[in-house]
Amino acid sequence: SPTPSQLYSKQYDPDIKRMMAGSTLRKVKSRSWKKQRHFRLLEDGLTIWYKSKWAGKGHSTFSVTEVEAVREGHQSEILLSTAEEFPADLCFTLVFHGRQGNLDLVAESLEEAQAWIQGVRKLIHKAETMDEQERLDQWVRDWFQKADKNKDGKMNFKEVKKLLKMMNVEMNEEHAYHLFKMADKSQSDSLEIEQFVHFYKILTQRNEVWKVFQDYSGDGEKLMLEELENFLRTEQQEKEQSTQHAKQLIESYEPSETVKKQGAMSLEGFQMYLCSQDGSIFKPGLLELYQDMSQPLSHYFISSSHNTYLLEDQLRGQSSLEAYIQALKRGCRCVEVDCWDGSDGEPVVYHGHTLTSKILFKDVISTIKEYGFRASDFPIIVSLENHCGLEQQTLMAQHLTQILGDLLQTSTLDGQVPQQLPSPQELKGKILLKAKKIGGLEKCVDEALTDEVSDEEEMANVFLSFFLPSLQKSKLSRELSDLVVYCKSVHFHGFEHAHCHAKCYEMSSFSESKAKKLGKEAGTEFVQYNTRQLSRTYPSGLRTDSSNYNPQDMWNVGCQIVALNFQTAGLEMDLNDGLFKQNGSCGYILKPDFMRDGNTQFCPEKPEERRDYKPRRLSIQVISGQQLPKVNQKEGSIVDPLVRVEIYGVPQDQAKEETSHINNNGFNPVWNATLNFVIHTPELALVRFVVEDYDKASRNDFIGQFTLPFTCIQPGYRHIHLLSKDGMAIPPSSLFVNISISDYE
Q1: 532 and 500, same structural domain?
Q2: What are the b/e assignments for 416-440, b being 16+ CB within 10 Å?
Q3: What average pLDDT does this structure show over 733-741?
Q4: What does the entry list as the binding residues for Ca(2+) 3 (predicted)?
């Protein structure tokens, strides 16, 4: 299959041609840091290389596959700040997947800018539409280009050995040489690129896949339709429509037309199916929007961010509009805005009384409007921590109504006082303000009420009272108060009080320690409370490094808005990404039925007391790994991988089991180890697969992970496509497993 550079080859595409010829672009990091760099697209059609004119050999590279989008003009904070110096039509921004910062660039001419903008967009499109096989071939070609130091398009055995080391393969030299000779059809003692691809295919022949294939193939050459059906029914536990599905799989994955005409599947087609989304551990149907979205908001877990404006830590980190964009594109549906009086009359957003930088409130609201509904149509909750005086609060209300217009929900849907919260479906495309309110929805109160302080502000005020003993309680602006409808912030006075007096539109915030304590002491009451009202939890004020708490403890008692520091990668965000990956990644997940019934007796501490208690047994045979990334880039280093499976759920379900490590093989390690678990509350359990590089002297290094809800697992022979620490795909790295799920008797 053609590489992107062949597809958009020099003779066909002037933009790609210009990128390959190279351009001098100005890289802008701030108003004072803007330096010229020479950029060009390398021959592989995927790698962008750049260096300073002066730096000797030093250069940087990145792959087009890391770029998510190209923004034209002054579409970043940095380019906006230098707008007077650089005309918009020369400026563009490369936006990367995940948490990597943007690259702001200025071209020397309009033609140059357009060539790079259009060229990168074409290459992104091509990279996104490659199928699995093309992606793998491209990956192999990339390695060939990296290893072919003298650029003669050939590789001798010495170079091949070096390349295998780079690819994380430790191999018996004799065996490697034997394969090399098999691929060297021209007997020239060197491999050209196509011969190298062939060599790589022989190298990666998957014995463990071949064995499964042999178990079901009558002639050892192909699977006839009924043999493939038998495999799907027996191993993949597909009962319904297995004939239809077998036909679809042959149509989609069988590369040989001859075999396809026989209604059969070859070993190559079988391996392609197992490595595809159909053969993935995640049930493909559950990646789509599949849940009932017409229930009250309180019946859903809602993807939520804490101090959304921060890109780094809580004390001196940068406040940025990009942080809102990144959270929203990850499917976040509840963002936080901390507002303070600005010195020039304009309210600002930052982490008060710290050295974090400030951004304008009105810019934050414009950003939410522009990016809020790209990843999901379902409602956004703007959680307002309001530290402003009356004057700037009124200005905030004006900004909200003028910028958001009809997007802002400022009255109840039917003009009536609600007995239950509206649904995500009814609020599609709407933005809700969560803040304090004068009085309720029942009647209007005239006086300017002194506001009740939320837990989070209370913590801030305790901290401030050391410096400002005469702290005054702030007044609440009527204009701002009137914009609050379904999310009125109130102080929590206990479950008994809430049961007797609380309204469905009243909601409280709980620190992580308070929520955990309530969960332990009164789990059932907390679950009942959360069937009718929203509750928000947030990280301890001591987490100044922006670390996170485990969200599972909060989901176990039905808390909907579990706010995490989205900017901090790690286990907690893996769990959040894992839970919200299903249902179209729309940011709303319907809670299990026993968490939606107001009279529920469910208690996470005692799952066996649930009326329809049905524990499951989960057995995972970890068979092998494929092309694991190198952790240490030192030339001779190769990983010693192990796999750990972790279960997160109700306290009784928390468990970890791991395989032993394999020495010196990140390329195709085989474990064949079986790990067993009992899951008491399957509806709440998340399963996390972690691969680490074993180190007996210090902590193991992280290699990759994948997390998903237990209810989304497809049993049978499956591939798990690993993600980086940042939650990004790292193809073609994967694990091959065989999963069986049964009732626990």
Answers
A1: yes
A2: eebebbbbbebbeebbbbbbbbbee
A3: 97
A4: 307, 336, 338, 385
307 is in an annotated binding site: yes
pTM: 0.89
Tell whether 638 is in a known binding site: yes
The reply to whether 661 falls in a domain is yes
Query: How many Cα atoms occupy the beta-carbon half-sphere of 60 within 13 Å?
Result: 9
pLDDT of 704: 97
State whether 355 and 324 are in the same domain: yes
| pLDDT given at position 470 | 44
580-632 pLDDT per residue, tens: 999 999 999 999 999 999 999 999 999 999 988 999 999 999 999 998 988 87
Average pLDDT over every residue of 435-460: 65
Q: Which residues are catalytic?
A: 306, 351
Instruction: Say what the pLDDT of residue 116 is.
Output: 98
At 505, list the tokens: 């539109």
Amino acid 78 reads I
At 474, list the tokens. Answer: 């702030």
- 8 Å CB contact between 489 and 435: yes
Residue 32 is assigned to a ligand binding site:
no
**Number of domains comprising the chain:** 5
- Is residue 478 annotated as involved in ligand binding? no
What is the band of 364 on the pLDDT scale with cuts at 50, 70, 90? very high
CA distance 397 to 362: 10
Residues 6+ apart with CB under 8 A from 567: 99, 310, 311, 312, 323, 326, 546
Work out the percent of the chain whose per-residue pLDDT is above 70: 93
The reply to whether 244 falls in a domain is yes
pLDDT at 707 over 60: yes
- 561: burial class by Cβ within 10 Å (0-12, 13-18, 19+)? buried
CB count within 10 Å of CB 186 equals 9
Q: Is residue 449 part of a domain?
A: no
Short-list 364, 358, 362, CA closest to 343: 358
Contact in structure between 671 and 623 (CB atoms under 8 Å): yes
265 with 316, same domain: the answer is no
Q: Are residues 138 and 175 in the same domain?
A: yes
- Domain extent, residue 196, equals 132-204
The pLDDT of residue 745 is 78
End-to-end CA distance of the chain: give it in Å, rounded.
51
SS (H, E, C) 489-531: ECCCCCHHHHHHHCCCCEEEEEEHHHHHHHHHHCHHHHHHHHH
Query: 737 with 660, same domain?
Result: yes
Report the C-alpha gap between 441 and 426 in whole angstroms: 19
Give me the CATH number covering residue 176. Answer: 1.10.238.10
Q: How many residues does the chain have?
A: 745
- Beta-strand (E) ranges in 627-723? 641-648, 655-658, 670-679, 686-693, 701-709, 716-723
190 with 319, same domain? Answer: no
pLDDT digits (tens, 9 = 90+) for 159-209: 888 888 777 776 778 888 888 898 888 889 999 888 888 888 787 778 999
Same-domain status, 265 and 301: no
Region label for 401, one of left (φ > 0), alpha (ψ between -120 and 50) or beta (otherwise): alpha
Selection from 685, 661, 692 nearest residue 741 by Cα: 685
Are 596 and 574 in contact by the 8 Å Cβ rule? The answer is: no
Residue 387 C-alpha from the chain's centroid = 32
In the block, residue with structure tokens 């009718």: 532
Q: Is 429 left (phi over 0), alpha (psi -120 to 50) or beta?
A: left
- CATH (domain of 432): 3.20.20.190
- Annotation-wise, does 240 bind a ligand? no
pLDDT confidence of 450, banded at 50, 70, 90?
very low
Whether 670 has a pLDDT exceeding 90, the answer reads yes
Question: What's 220's DSSP letter?
Answer: S
pLDDT value for 442:
81
Residue 460 belongs to a domain: no
Residues 492 and 556 grouped into a single domain:
yes
